[in-house]
Design a protein that fits this description.
single chain; alpha/beta; Rossmann fold; seven-stranded parallel sheet; two-stranded parallel ribbon; 13 strands; 43% helix; binds NADP nicotinamide-adenine-dinucleotide phosphate
Length: 314
């Protein structure tokens, strides 16, 4: 992949690129403290982007920011909860004030909850849907208003294969991803009048990130990334590709097409097999039910989500 546009002026504390001529690509990454957001931030840092990283915890975001700065990137950290429209608007306004524009937003912030629908407490279900669906709407609203003013910009939304199929024990997430896919498609259509404004939906299959360990769990077992699993770096490279060549819909994962085909073409067979398969490959050792990171940001320094999986029930 080519490097993104090289730097014009450093807008924040730690740049090594002040002498270069063209403006760097200004990228806002939500959910940058972990998993795909973190890998994307590091990948884009390697490719000369000017980064603004956001999530619910400055402490954890700064760990990622330091890693990006060591690779020569200009990085700003802004704490914001995507459920808070005012905070998201203020964040986007601050980016534009600081850098005079916003080129790309990679929206990776999300929550997950495991458990049969009726076992997941309603406040947990609601918080996941609020974060995943309304959080995406808030980010898209603020970012697209800016892109429309600029008449250019690229919103890259992390969807999922689970926005195209259904799976048991993940009702809040599956519901949310289906809604996000519908929203992304609508936004893509609505912005067809601006050829340089793009809405890209990236739909990975299973990715090896801490989301499984820090998800709320009422399934009585630790969640695991079901095989076949790809790395967050692989997803980050796909995001980098979309920064350079925007595309409305991108599938990413060796089993996505097969799963989508089984879901749509053979529903009775799919519905028969999906629950035992899910129990076999996606749920591990016993675990005391817990709300994970649903009501609190990733615990400081625990960028791998280890503190949530704790000890098995006695
Ligand atoms: N991992 C997979 O297998 C997989 C597969 C397909 C699609 N995806 C999608 O890829 C994206 C990233 O997932 P991931 O696996 O990288 O998850 P992750 O490691 O848990 O990262 C999620 C990020 O979202 C942030 N976040 C959570 N709630 C937030 C809120 N209310 N406001 C702002 N930030 C918030 C988290 O930080 P704080 O907790 O500190 O706020 C964290 O940085 C999600 O959209 C996910 O659905 C993942």
């Amino acid at each position: 992949m080519n490097r993104f546009s090289p730097a014009r002026t450093p807008a924040t504390s730690t740049s090594s690129a002040a002498s270069q001529a063209k403006p760097r690509t200004v990228v806002l990454v939500t959910g940058a403290s972990s998993g795909i957001g973190r890998a994307t931030a590091v990948h884009l840092a390697d490719h000369g982007a000017q980064l603004v990283l956001t999530g619910r915890s400055t402490v954890t975001l700064e760990i990622v920011a330091d890693r990006c700065r060591r690779r020569g990137a200009d990085v700003t950290v802004v704490e914001a909860d995507v459920r808070d429209m005012a905070a998201v608007e203020a964040l986007v306004t601050a980016v534009v004030e600081q850098h005079s524009r916003l080129d790309v937003c990679v929206h990776a912030a999300a929550l997950v909850a495991y458990g049969r629908f009726e076992d997941v407490p309603s406040d947990v279900f609601d918080r996941v849907v609020e974060t995943d669906v309304l959080g995406t709407a808030n980010v898209a609203r603020a970012v697209l208003r800016t892109f429309r003013r600029q008449r250019t910009g690229n919103l890259i939304v992390l969807g999922s294969i689970l926005g195209r199929i259904a799976t048991p024990y993940m009702s809040a997430y599956v519901t949310s991803k289906a809604a996000i896919h519908a929203l992304a498609r609508t936004l893509s259509i609505e912005n067809r009048d601006l050829p340089d404004v793009h809405v890209c939906l990236l739909m990975p299959g299973s990715v090896d990130t801490p989301v499984y360990r820090r998800a709320a769990s009422y399934a009585g077992r630790v969640a695991k990334a079901p095989p076949p699993v790809i790395s967050p770096d692989r997803v980050a490279r796909a995001v980098g590709g979309l920064v350079e060549r925007p595309r409305a819909r991108t599938d990413l994962g060796p089993a996505n097409k097969l799963m989508a085909l089984g879901f749509t073409a053979l529903p009775p067979m799919y519905d028969l097999l999906v629950t035992p398969l899910m129990r076999l490959v996606a749920l591990g050792r016993p675990l005391v039910p817990h709300p994970g990171n649903v009501f609190e940001p990733t615990r400081a320094g625990d960028i791998d989500g280890e503190t949530y999986v704790g000890s098995p029930p006695r």
